[in-house]
Design goal:
Blueprint lengths: L4 E2 L16 E5 L13 E4 L5 E5 L2 E5 L4 E4 L15 E3 L4 E5 L6 E5 L2 E4 L12 H9 L14 E4 L5 E4 L3 E5 L5 E6 L6 E6 L2 E6 L4 E4 L8 E2 L7 E5 L4 E5 L3 E7 L4 E8 L7 E7 L4 E6 L4 E5 L4 E3 L12 E3 L5 E3 L3 E4 L2 E5 L12 E2 L5 E5 L2 E5 L7 E6 L4 E6 L4 E6 L9 E5 L8 E2 L9 E4 L5 E4 L3 E6 L4 E6 L5 E6 L5 E5 L4 E5 L2 E4 L11 E6 L4 E6 L2 E6 H10 L5 E4 L19 E3 L2 E6 L2 E5 L14 E6 L4 E3 L3 E3 L6 E7 L11 E5 L8 E3 L4 E5 L4 E10 L6 E10 L7 H94 L5 H32 L8 E4 H11 L1 H6 L3 E6 L4 E4 L1 H17 L5 E9 L2 E8 L6 H12 L8 H4 L2 H12 L2 E6 L5 E8 L4
Parallel strand pairs: 56-62, 64-66
Antiparallel strand pairs: 1-34, 2-25, 3-4, 4-5, 5-6, 7-8, 8-9, 9-10, 11-12, 12-13, 13-14, 15-16, 16-17, 17-18, 19-20, 20-21, 21-22, 23-24, 24-25, 26-53, 27-28, 28-29, 29-30, 31-32, 32-33, 33-34, 35-36, 36-37, 37-38, 39-40, 40-41, 41-42, 43-44, 44-45, 45-46, 47-48, 48-49, 49-50, 51-52, 52-53, ...
Pfam family, one: Reg_prop
Keywords: Membrane, Phosphoprotein, Signal, Transmembrane, Transmembrane helix
EC number: 2.7.13.3
């Protein structure tokens, strides 16, 4: 159902207009910017610096700060400066101090004392012209006399003012043109663009030398005005208490151009200069210092009837008018009228359909104002939730996005604006709130949620989603080349390419952190609104960054350029519009309007220079190479750069090849860089500045030369190296000579010792032969003992045993006893000889000590037990044997049998009516053999002897006569096998002996 609301449209024709805002800034001695408040002369130089003379020094202004030249830091005798004259193009400005005490040439951004004085002056009759240059002149000009004055042009030509004629000479003093002209006392003679002009100040008329003064033209000069002429830049100013006018001329007509107007300017003006490049006016006062007026480049459209002038969405409704989401209709001068409706001041969006009907949301309603009734009637559509945005597509469909509260219902509705009775249709495909809607070239609808970008195709109803990640999208902009750019709230802006967001770099001051919206001008430059002003950037630079990560130049505009506020508004739709040739952006204080083609831009395109450095205690000037002494600890390079625009647009970087390791240091808001304690050698300082609206750098290189001490020089190091090599060579030669002599002496000694050695070897051979013979004799002796002694002893033992057994049948005890003694002695003697023979055989075959084969240790011990069985029974002893290693091991059977034999023999000898226990074991590749008896034991003295003998076998004296041969033989064999013996004994409680043998080779 169509609801018609009759709304009375009240036209509120307002007296408001586009605000012309000038940014003004004072510099004075009170603010410590100036040394003194009287500014006599203001002149630019060839490099863009502004020079000013005061009663307390000469000033140089670079747009950032003032540099003072006076007797304190220069070789001037006086600080009272006069006016500045000279030629800017020739880099030869001239000034002087009072009474010409100091004649000063301003050249190459510095001052030079010179003997030349008036040869550089524009006027040769300075006394006649000083009144015009220095004082505020009233309409009464009778006291100013220009007769017999030569007025010089920039190219060296000059006009000679005579009483009856005016002659133009070239710099070689040849006449170029001569005009008969009667000198007029009340006329001001001055140059404008190197053309002589005669101004009749009282009559308000002027004549031109070019026209041979044949025609007189009127000039509208305000009443009660005064004149200031800046002869160096040929600027004539006429000013009142409310306005400052500049003399300008077209081809044949002159006019006064208002460069600054303000009620009650209230400045006692001493000097003036207008800088066309920066659109700034410099006003020098007699007693208040310097005032710099930045002339407006923007206009701000306001509604003076409202207490608030913050705006959001707007839309053009004709070629000359646009409407805001508040319902206000503007033209390019201000508010024209406003709808009287129920819309509040916090609407962020609006849309205009193809029939010019206006759709403005209001809370959970959207009101359609009908063009057919000149917007006096409307239609209202209600929804369940508050509306976030509204958009009209190319098919004349109205798209409506709901805000964050509509989380569980339809988020997007459409209304067909082609049909009068169309009602909102919910799109079920969307399940999240939508806050921005636009359309691409393929007629797809782009819908922005909090963290997602949705692409909806109305034809096939397909939906694609692109995650925005951490980005909170504010708006989507489609450029002329069909590239898609995403503005976010806290993460700058990005290029959307192949469904991926490519983050663009921030500007130097991070103003782009919150990017609201983008407009593109005819040159392919983007204009981006932020919370910190307006930023202009070349799209080509952004695409170059995307491809090659090249630098991007951002140009910043703020209140110094005429904005009422730096804070633009976003989160609305449309965020920025075009009205004719103008762009219009909403801000916190008005609608900002400007023509991007005609906007005066102050671009940092000037050259920069690095020729000054401050050391620890002085200032030094240089060209391309700086030579420093070694005692300089700290140096500070000054970057000379004149720029009268926004300093946020100046961005220097520097690196020193031997300090930063190739890393560039950002010199944000600084025109200087310092280094301390540089090493000797040659350093290269690189300083660069990005060129405006390009991806290129302007780079300067400075060579820094720091000398080495003589002992650090290469030649000295080479000399010392050569000296060391020579000394080393001489030392080697001497050493070689000494060694050679020693070698000769050693050869003699060797010969002598060799002769002695031969003798010794001969003796050793004889000794070896003797030893071999002795060994042979010992073998024969052992063989003799084995055959001639052991056999009889064996028969003797058997015979004694037989006699002893026969004596047992006798009743004669004496015979029994003697037979027993005889039997035992014979047996013991036989066993001793047999044991000694076996032991000797072992050492006679010492080369075979470590040779062995796998034997069963049980067989060896069992054989020995059987050997001593009768002896053990005779003493009423019991032998027990426990074998825990019942497998074959690598062992020398002879050595092992001797050790078991002696241990078992000792145990039986020292035990009667007792037990003898033998036990074998292998633990961690070691063979353990334990022999334990219950006999009489051994004394502590004997135990200590054997333990000490085991530790010091080579040095201790053997006590065979006291302790017998048995254990000595065991210890000697263990020493050869690198084994050990442990003795545990207690008197009358038996003895336990453990031998440990390494079984590593088994």
């Amino acid at each position: 159902m169509r609801h018609l609301l009759t709304i009375v449209a009240v036209l509120l024709f307002c007296t408001t207009h586009a605000q012309e805002i000038y940014h003004e800034k004072w510099f004075s001695a009170e603010t410590e910017d100036l040394p003194q408040n009287s500014i006599k002369s203001i002149v630019p130089d060839k490099y863009g610096f502004i020079w000013m003379t005061t009663e307390n020094g000469l000033l140089r202004y670079d747009g950032r700060s003032f540099k003072v030249f006076n007797s304190g830091n220069s070789n001037l005798q006086s600080n009272r400066l006069a006016y500045i004259s000279g030629n800017i193009k020739n880099d030869s400005l001239i000034t002087h101090t009072a009474y010409y005490v100091d004649k000063i040439l301003i050249n190459r951004r510095n001052i030079i004392k010179t003997e030349k004085s008036k040869s550089y002056n524009t006027f040769t009759n300075d006394d006649a012209y000083e009144d015009l240059l220095y004082y505020n002149n009233s309409l009464n000009t009778e006291d100013i006399d220009f007769s017999n004055t030569k007025i010089k042009c920039e190219n060296g030509d000059y006009y000679s003012i005579g009483t009856s004629k005016i002659t133009l000479f070239n710099k070689k003093k040849k006449v170029i043109k001569e005009i008969t002209q009667q000198y007029k006392k009340n006329t001001i003679y001055f140059l404008h663009e190197n053309e002589l002009i005669l101004l009749d100040y009282k009559k308000g008329s002027y004549t031109l030398f070019k026209n041979e003064f044949s025609s007189t033209y009127k000039l509208d000069i305000p009443n009660n005005s005064k004149i200031i002429y800046n002869s160096v830049v040929q600027q004539l100013f006429i000013y009142t208490k409310d306005e400052i006018l500049l003399f300008k001329k077209t081809a044949n007509k002159a006019y006064l151009y208002s460069v600054f107007s303000k009620p009650n300017i209230n400045i006692n003006i001493k000097s003036l200069y207008y800088d066309k490049a920066s659109n700034k006016l410099f006003i020098g006062s007699i007693d208040k210092g310097l005032k710099i007026v930045s002339l407006n480049g923007f206009k701000t459209l306001l509604n003076s009837n409202n207490s608030d002038n913050y705006y959001y969405g707007s839309f053009p409704i004709s070629d000359t008018e646009f409407i805001t989401s508040k319902g206000e209709i503007f033209n390019n001068t201000g508010v024209q009228r406003r709808f009287k409706s129920n819309t509040d001041n916090f609407n962020y969006s609006l849309a205009v359909d193809q029939e010019k009907n206006i759709w403005i949301p209001n809370e959970n309603k959207i009101v359609k104002y009908l063009k057919s009734s000149n917007y006096t009637t409307s239609q209202t559509f209600a929804f369940d939730y508050k509306i976030a945005t509204v958009f009209c597509d190319s098919k004349n469909f109205i798209w409506i996005g709901m805000d964050q509260k509509a989380r569980h219902n339809a988020k997007v509705y459409t209304i067909d604006a082609n049909q009068d009775n169309s009602q909102p249709t919910p799109l079920k495909a969307f399940n999240q709130p939508i806050n921005f809607i636009t359309e691409n070239r393929e007629n797809e609808i782009l819908l922005v949620s909090e963290r997602e970008l949705l692409t909806y195709n109305p034809k096939n109803k397909s939906l694609k989603s692109i995650s925005a990640g951490i980005n909170e999208i504010r708006s989507v902009f489609i450029a002329k080349d069909n590239s898609v750019w995403i503005c976010t709230y806290n993460n700058g802006f990005s290029l959307l390419k192949d469904n991926i967001l490519y983050k663009m770099p921030y500007d130097n001051q991070m103003y782009l952190l919150s990017a609201h919206c983008i407009k593109e001008d005819s040159k392919g430059h983007f204009w981006i609104s932020t919370n910190k002003g307006l930023i202009e950037v070349n799209q080509k630079s952004l695409l170059n960054y995307y491809k090659n990560k090249t630098p991007v130049y951002y140009h910043h505009y703020n209140i110094k350029n005429g904005l009422l506020s730096n804070e633009f508004n976003g989160g609305c739709q449309p965020c920025a519009i075009e009205l004719g040739e103008e762009f219009i952006f909403p801000s916190l204080n008005g609608m900002v309007a400007f023509n991007p083609e005609n906007l005066h831009k102050i671009i940092p395109s000037n050259n920069f220079y690095i020729n000054e450095v401050e050391t620890d205690a002085s200032t030094q000037y240089f060209k391309d190479t700086l030579h420093l002494s070694r005692d300089v600890y700290r140096i500070k390079f000054k970057i000379d750069y004149a720029f009268l625009g926004n300093l946020d647009n100046v961005y220097f970087e520097a690196k020193l090849n031997q300090v930063e390791g190739g890393k560039w240091i950002n010199l944000i808001n600084e025109n200087e860089i310092s280094y301390t304690n540089l090493e000797p050698g040659t350093h290269t300082l690189y300083v660069r500045k990005i060129k405006p609206f390009t991806s290129e750098y302007e780079v300067k290189e400075i060579t820094i030369s720091i000398p080495y001490y003589f002992y650090e020089e290469l030649w000295f190091k080479f000399f010392i190296g050569l000296l060391l090599i020579t000394a080393f060579y001489i030392a080697v030669k001497l050493r070689y000579s000494i060694i050679r002599k020693k070698n000769i002496e050693l050869e003699k000694v060797v010969e002598e010792r060799t002769a002695d050695l031969f003798k010794t070897v001969s003796k050793l051979k004889i000794t070896r032969n003797n030893l071999n013979q002795e060994i042979v004799q010992q073998k024969k002796l052992i063989g003799t003992i084995s055959h001639d002694i052991r056999s009889p002893l064996r028969f003797l033992s058997i015979t004694a045993k037989h006699l002893y057994e026969k004596s047992l049948l006798s009743e004669n005890n004496s015979i029994k006893d003697n037979a027993q003694v005889m039997h035992e002695s014979a047996s013991q003697l036989y066993k001793f000889v047999e044991n000694l023979v076996d032991y000797s055989k072992v050492f006679m075959e010492h080369n075979k000590l470590h040779e062995g084969k796998k034997e069963n240790i049980n067989d060896i011990i069992t054989d020995k037990i059987d050997l001593f069985k009768n002896m053990s029974v005779g003493k009423n002893n019991i032998i027990t044997y426990f074998n825990n290693c019942d497998f074959q091991i690598m062992v020398n059977r002879s050595i092992f049998a001797i050790m078991i034999h002696n241990l078992l023999d000792n145990a039986i000898k020292n035990t009667r009516n007792g037990q003898i226990k033998i036990e074998t074991n292998i633990v961690k590749n070691k063979i353990f053999i334990s022999m334990e008896d219950t006999g009489v034991g051994i004394s502590e003295e004997m135990k200590a002897y054997y333990i000490n003998l085991q530790k010091n076998y080579e040095t201790d004296k053997l006590a065979l006569q006291n302790y017998g041969l048995g254990l000595h033989m065991v210890l000697e064999l263990l020493r050869l096998l690198k084994g050990e013996m442990k003795i545990y004994s207690k008197k009358d409680h038996g003895t336990k002996i453990i031998i440990v043998i390494d079984n590593a080779q088994s």
